[in-house]
Write a structure and sequence with these properties.
Elements lengths: L14 H33 L11 H30 L6 E8 L2 E6 L5 E5 L21 E4 L4 E7 L4 E5 L4 E5 L5 E5 L5 E6 L12 E7 L1 H13 L1
Parallel strand pairs: 1-5, 4-10
Antiparallel strand pairs: 1-2, 2-3, 5-8, 6-7, 9-10
Helix pairs in contact: 1-2
């Protein structure tokens, strides 16, 4: 989860988020170089007397500021497209979970795993105990096995929502009447917090998401426990 005064992204907990962080660092270096060049040019123009102000022919300059931006765009676009296709690829997921957004809670259905279904509401502040996070904790976690490809089918019942887990690199709109698909792999056990990222009404900020990644054995025990409930 995020912490106070955080400037960067959350630590990556999935291969997709690791790729996004690498792309962010790659692009940020290019932005720094461009900003430095522009600042240098402005400084030179402000401190050096202007000469050749009547020059009408500057083919070299025209070529540089046309070709150089094109090269920069290609250097940014190619890794961006690569990550886009990697994140859209769903290759033999081990489990499929359907998430439905409501005003204002999430419901989950494990459609191919014992037909488990439950709702996840935000826990009121009065019910929180030490170690739980206000406005982020829910009464029922979405439990998934770690190191396993998980396919998410995301939709909504009423208005637009958005199912978002920053540390897993997942942000998918929940659209009424439409199933959107995404995938992730949690590389380590833990709790991953997220929130609805589409303004969906008065209680938009009160429908958090908690994904709990556990070893496969514990996931199987949890699924049997949910069947008994």
């Amino acid at each position: 989860m995020a912490y106070p005064s955080q400037l960067g992204f959350q630590d990556a907990s999935s291969p997709g988020m690791e790729e996004l962080l690498h792309f962010h660092d790659h692009t940020l270096m290019i932005v720094f170089l461009i900003s430095t060049l522009v600042l240098y040019t402005i400084t030179i123009m402000m401190t050096t007397p202007l000469t050749n102000t009547n020059s009408m022919d500057a083919q070299e300059v025209e070529m540089v500021w046309t070709i150089l931006p094109a090269i920069i765009m290609v250097v940014i676009a190619l890794p961006s497209l690569r990550i886009l296709y990697l994140m859209d690829e769903v290759d033999e997921p081990h489990i499929t979970v359907k998430s439905v957004g409501h005003q204002w809670y999430w419901s989950y259905e494990y459609t191919d795993y014992n037909n488990i279904s439950f709702d996840a509401y935000m826990m009121p502040s009065n019910d929180l105990y030490h170690g739980l996070f206000r406005l982020l904790e829910v009464d029922n976690h979405m439990v998934v096995p770690m190191e396993s490809p998980v396919r998410m089918l995301i939709t909504a019942e009423d208005v637009l929502h958005s199912w978002t887990i920053p540390s897993l690199g997942v942000k998918t709109d929940a659209v009424p009447g439409r199933l959107n698909q995404t995938t992730f792999i949690a590389t380590r056990p833990g709790l991953y917090y997220g929130q609805c990222s589409e303004i969906c009404g008065a209680n938009h900020s009160f429908m958090p998401i908690v994904v709990e990644s556990v070893p496969t054995k514990y996931f199987e025990d949890w699924s049997l426990l949910m069947l008994d409930v």
